[in-house]
Specification:
The chain has 193 residues and is an alpha+beta fold. It is 56% helix and 15% strand. Strands 1, 2, 3, 4 and 5 form a five-stranded antiparallel β-sheet that branches. The radius of gyration is 19 Å and the shape is elongated.
Length: 193
Amino acid sequence: MPLVFSALKVANMCCKKEEALVKSTLALLGSDVAKVEVNMIQRTAYVRHRTTVSAETLVSILNEKNLGASIALPNGQATLVNADDDGSQASLCCFLWSDWQLYACLFVPITLLVLSLCQLYEPKVNLALKIAAVVLSSKDLLLKAYQSVKVLSLNMSILMALVLILAIFLGHLTEAAEISILYALSELVRDPA
């Protein structure tokens, strides 16, 4: 039976507990779901499943657990995956570039930081570039840290947010931008399993 690849936005997924809940909930479908990958930054679950289970069914099962799921691909399309293929190319492509915000939150801050380090502009312009790099790249880190504090859960997001805030207060904006960019990159490439 052919497999399809669906991308699902999971709005209420903010920590490892919800990530595990998404995986365990979809695992209840047994052999109908071949593989589930989760990207916490994009709050997206990438699911390889049989055609007997629709993307709408996956969404309704996740929403029974109050996860705020919806179909991420336009018009609810599911991409067919070759049965011999392990799905790594399709999932990796969708995992890395399915959201324009990810591109903006990594490429733009890196560019701004490099420009500020080149010392091509006046000190005030360099300072503005560093501040912009910190603001653009730290949004997801600070959001995840805030959500972890709300549920009284100590994790890496809180620790990295503390380091980021301390670097800003000490006036080390270059290091603050590097911290937030490297954290975002590490979240992007971490093993979703």
